[in-house]
Amino acid sequence: MSHTGNGYVYGEYLPEYKDELDPRSWINIKDYGEKDLRELIEKVIEAFS
């Protein structure tokens, strides 16, 4: 098994990230830094709450 660093967050309900969505509404987080990733995850949690 190799580590690729790939990861995805569901972003359909985050209009500010619409340019980063793939055709299935996922955001690739591979190149996100810690601060940006934490912010994105907080927004996703809020969107689902």
What features would you describe in this structure?
It is a single chain. The protein has one domain (8-48). It has one helix spanning 34-48, and strands spanning 8-10, 26-28. The protein starts with 7 loop residues before the first strand and ends with a helix. The longest helix has 15 residues, at 34-48. Helices cover 31% and strands 12% of the residues. The chain has a two-stranded antiparallel ribbon. It is α+β, with helices and mostly antiparallel strands and 49 residues long. The chain is built from one helix and two strands, in the order ββα. The mean pLDDT is 93.
What percent of the residues sit in helical stretches (DSSP H or I)?
A: 25-40%
The stretches of 5 or more residues where confidence is low (pLDDT under 50) are none
Report Rg. 11 Å
Secondary-structure content class? alpha+beta
Strand order of the largest sheet: 1-2
